[in-house]
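User: Show me a protein chain along with its predicted structure.
Assistant: Here is one chain, sequence first, then structure tokens.
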Amino acid sequence: MLLLDSNGAADLLERASLLDAVSTSRTEVLDRVVAAQGRTAATEEAAAEALGTNLEAEAQARTAFEQATALLEEQQANLPKLLEDKADNDEKFYAALVELLGPEGAAAAFAQYEQDLQSQYSAEASARADAYGGGPVLSGSWALPLAGPLTSCFCERWGTMHWGIDIAAPMYTPMYSAGDGVVVKAGPATGFGQAVYIEHDNGDVTVYGHMEVIEVSTGQRVAAGQEIALVGSQGFSTGPHLHFEVYSGGLNGVRVDPVIWLANRGIFV
């Protein structure tokens, strides 16, 4: 039987202690690795879930856009027939007036009818403007073009850059010039249906699109907060709103974010 001397026993104990420490260290490392793998798996799962949510939201937004586009195309396809029906009804109405009142009386009555209709539109627009604060929001020599919810930003949408902001409001709500300047264009505009372009005294140009009624003309001098048009849904539009753009340095300049441009002038959307 082999007996260990004191040095041999001490050496054995020292080695056993070292092996135990190594084993404990390996166990701790393995525990940390397992925990890290668990955290990684949870992170990957959360990322996958977030990606799925984003993809679902994008799909829903794309579907809504396609549905709105289809509805707009349907409405635009029906527009000629509606205008034709309106013209036919106006013609029948005028013929009845002629038969009842004679040519001169019919002309006067029809003119009064159109004036009353425009007054009705103006009254409704004023009432809606009161509901949105009753007039332009002014800050120094600048104004908020339209008070209402911001429905689209200066950003990329579905792979295409949206070069302005959209502010929603009811039909015929007044919209205002953002600053002092001269109207450089007012009338039909591709995509907008109708638009107003104003060159301001600092050289920047603001653009107002989709209005139903234009109340200014090319070459006219306007002031900040002056009413220039009534909200509509003309052109490529899914509902009544103002599309507002800003060209820094003129029409040949750079289009900039209108929210930031307005904020730099003390106006907040």
